[in-house]
Amino acid sequence: MAAFTSGEIMVAAAAREIRDGDVVFVGMRLPLLAFQLAKLTHAPRAVGVFENGVIRLIPSDQFLYTMGDPPNIVGASMCTRLSLVMSLLGRGRIDVGFIGGAEVDRFGNVNSSLIGPQDRPRVKLPGSGGACDIASLAKRLLIIMAHERHRFREAVDFVTSPGYLRSAAQRRALELAGGPSALITTMGVLGFEPQSGEAVLRSYHPGVTVEEIRAQTGWELMVAPDVSETPPPTAEELRLIRRLDPQGFWTRGNAG
Amino acid sequence: MKLMSLAEAIGRFVPDGASVAMGTCLESLIPFAAGHEIIRRRRRDLTLIGPIFDIVVDQLIGAGCVATIQAAWVGNVSAGLGYAFRRAAEAGIPRPITVEEYSNYTVVLALLAGAHGLPFVPVRSGPGSDITRNHPAFAEVTSPFDHRTVMVVRALRPDVAIVAVQRADAEGHAHAWGNLGITEEAGLAAEHIIVLAEEIADTAILTSDPNRVLFPPFRVSAVVHCPGACHPSPVQGYYGRDHQFYADYHRETQTPEGMAAWLDRWVYGVPDRAGYLARLGQERWAALRRLQSAPAAPADYAWQEQASPQSDEVEPRIAGAAPRRSTRDRVGDTGAGDTRVGDT
What domain range is B196 assigned to? Predict the structure, then answer.
C-alpha cells in the first residue's frame, strides 16, 4: 500500500508544473492545494488569481471549501470584480491555469457541460464556470482528471473547454493562447505533442503500469520514449499537503 | 421610498416571466432570502442570469420557478452537482428548462454590453468551444479593421438584479466588501436593482467612503433590511459559510420527494427570513457569527478648505454633513467584525 493517495501525488505533480513567478489562475480543490504547495516550496513568488475577483500573493493558511470563503478574502492582495481578473486572461497576463472536468479527449478538449446529445442530455453537468476562459486564454493549461476509461475518450461529447481541438494547427487558427501543457491524472502525467497537439504519457504514478493506463484510456495512447515513474511526493510535500488539507477532504478518496 | 420589505420588493420587481440576475458574487453574498421569497410567491417562467450559480438556483429550479438559465455553472460549489438542475435539464422535472450556457468571462461581457447600451461585444473565449455553437447569443462577425473573424456575444439586460451587501442606506447607497464577481455589471445592466442589506446605516456612513459605493443610488429601486439574507453563503465581516448546510442539502435533495420536503421545511414552512433563522437555531446561527475581527484601516478623505476671497467665513461644503471626526468614529463602530449585527 502506497504511503500517499492518488490525490496527494496529483497535488505534488501539479505543484511542480507551477514555476516561480508564475501568475496562476487557481480554481479550487486539488489546484488550490497545488498552488499552496508550490508557494511553500519552489515557487514562493507565484501569484494566485481567483475568478470571483481575488488576487493573493500569500495563500490563505486555512482550509477552503470555496474561493469565496472569508479566509480567502482576509490577507488578499486585491479584492475586485470578475471582469478585472478575466482581463488578465484576455490580455495574456496569466501564465498558467487549472481546470478539471468530466471527460477529456486525446487532444486535451474537456467536457464539463453534458453527456449525451445536446438537446436531450443523459447527464447534465454543472457547466463551464471559468474553465472555457482559462483553457482558451492562459499561456499554459493544466488539466486535472480522474483517469477512467469512460472519461478518457477519443472525442468528448461536448467541448466545453477547447484543448487542441483536432490538431494544434486548428487551435492556432482560432487565435487562442497556449493550450494544454499537462494532463495530471489519478494514474500518471500526460504532456502534449507540440505539432499534433496529441496527449503523450510522460510518467506513471508509483504502483501503476503503462498497460493499466492504456486500459483506462479510450484511445490508442502515445507513450513518450523516456516515460518514467512520477516522482512521489517528498516527505516535506506530504507534510505540507496534510497540513493544508487536514481532513483529507480533497486528497483522500477524491479524484478532483 | 426605497426602503421596503423583501415581500414588497419581490412582489413589485420580480413578476412572472422576469429575467433576474442574482448570485453575482459567485460563492459569497448570495441573496438566498430573495430566492426563497420568489419561491414562496410561486413566481413562474423566470430567466435566471449569473456566473457560477450556487444552490439557491437549484432551489428555484426545484420549486418550478425557472424556464431559462443563462449562466456559466449550476450546482453545489462545495458538494458537486445540483440534483434539481439535473432533473429539470435531463427529465423536465418539475418542468423543462432551457439552459443557455455561458462562461464566466462571456456572461460578464454580455452584461457589460447591456450596462453600456451596446448591442454586443467581442469575446476572446468562445471560439472552438461547443458552448457557443447553436447558442442564440453568440455569433461571428468580420472585423471592419483587419477583416479577421471575431466572435461576439449579445448584450444581456436583466429586468432586475438582486444584490446582497453588508450595509446600505435608504437612498440606495450600498457598500459591499470582499470579492465583487459580476455584481457591478449585472446591476448596471438591469432595469431595476434590489439591494438586500445586512445592516441599514446613515447616509453619512456610506458617503464617508464613496469609493466603496456599488451603484449610483438613483439606480437602486429597492433597499431591503434583511439580516442573515445570505445564509448558508458567507458575508465577510458578518457571518461565515455554513459548509454543513451545503452537504445536508446535497444529501437531502437527491429525489423529487426529498426536494419537496426540503422546500417545505426551509421555504414554504417559514414566513420570512427571521423564521428561517429561528428554524436554523440560535446556537448554530451564533456559531457562524463568531468571527475574528479584521478591520480595514480607515481611508482619510482629508481635504483643504479654501478661504473665500470675499469673506473670511468658510461655508461648509455639504449642508448637514456630520463633523469629520464624529463620522469617522461612527464608521469605526460599524466596521467589519462587528458582532452586534443581525441580532434576529
Answer: 6-105+157-288
